[in-house]
TrEMBL record:
Coiled coil: none annotated. InterPro entries: Serpin_CS, Serpin_dom, Serpin_fam, Serpin_sf, Serpin_sf_1, Serpin_sf_2. The keyword Phosphoprotein does not apply. Belongs to the serpin family. It comes from Bacillus atrophaeus (strain 1942). Residues 25-44 are annotated as: Disordered. Residues 1-25 form the signal peptide. Keywords: Signal. Residues 60-414 form the Serpin domain. This is Serpin domain-containing protein. It holds the Pfam family Serpin.
Amino acid sequence: MQTKNGWMMFLLLLLALAGCGQPSAEHPASQMSSSKTSPSAQSADGIHKEFIEAEGLFGISVFHHLIEQQGTEKNVFISPYSIQQALVMTANGADGKTKEEMKNTLLLSEMKDREINEAANTLMNSFRTLFDGELLAAHSVWTGLDINPQFKQTIEQHFDGKACKLGPHPEKAKRKINEWAAKKTKGHIEDIADNLSPNTIAVLLNTIYFQGDLAQPFDKAMTYVEPFYLQNGTEKKHPMMKQTALLPYQENELFQAVKLSYKNKDLSFAVFLPQKDKDLSSLTASLTHENLEKWENRWEEKTVKLSLPRFSFEEKYNLRGILTQLGMKTAFGKADFSNLFQDKSTGAKIDDVNHHTFIKTDETGTEAAAATSVEIIESASGPELSLTVNRPFLFVIADEKTKSILFLGTVAEPAE
């Protein structure tokens, strides 16, 4: 028995991989190579093949780490495109070991910086050529310090990004960032900056919004409330959409799968349902970039009687721990982001990487959105002294203006 909290998030990952493209970019324009990508290294769309492959591999790796953290009884939904795009944009401001680790984590160490940025730009521009539906990516950089002109040029040229001032008021800055993200995601991601640290000196943002109508929509009159069996064995009554149509289909010992096309034939929605003697964890364990490519070559047109749950949910993740595990350690510690700010002596490190997502699928199609924020703070200098209050002490509560002692006491044994 499968769970909506489970296999639905798996098909959504596939949607992100297939429909949301792949991102990347690195280091400032000042240090970018002028080499050109050879024709043999390019995909049919003119995008570097290594770049496309890196996004898939990186996205699947992040996905597996989230599955390990949350299990398969909860929804998991990410946008590999958004996560990598935000980090790639940030890497343009990094140098030294920080940059090297970021490129390694993003699986882009073999590509030159200019190749990466140009590939990201080509991919983003390809989104604008859809004849039906919407697939919109946006970028912005919010800083409290003067931005490096070369970094600013890179963001504007390759990411069509906008540079904005954070301002001195944290709450106002949060509101402005949230308003920008909400606007770019059609109101679905409204709180990406809610947990912004007061010490933040820069926020780098990527958003992506997708809306696509199915080429063969479901008939709403055929949607019925039926049982959906959760992974723990319980039964839930839920609206199930139904259609019988000629669809790409495949089956093996692990799963049954069907692919739905959107009106824009370049985008698809693939559903992988574990066989009855398997569970979701065995299916997700088999999810690799190699297997996805293998499965992609095995679709056959079949007449399929399909029942699919209607669903909508949103998820929020802090990716700091996962990115550290994947090898991006220095960026969160003794980092070098000297190419991000005009003042190269500024000590800065990544504080958090937050990722928010939204998905809704009904009889007509799919609407999805994601936002990823990379929050950078100024590295604090070490303390001059240390004070550990771990033995009896005296305390005074006073009025500083009148010097009146309001309370006076000692603590010999702390109690709650």
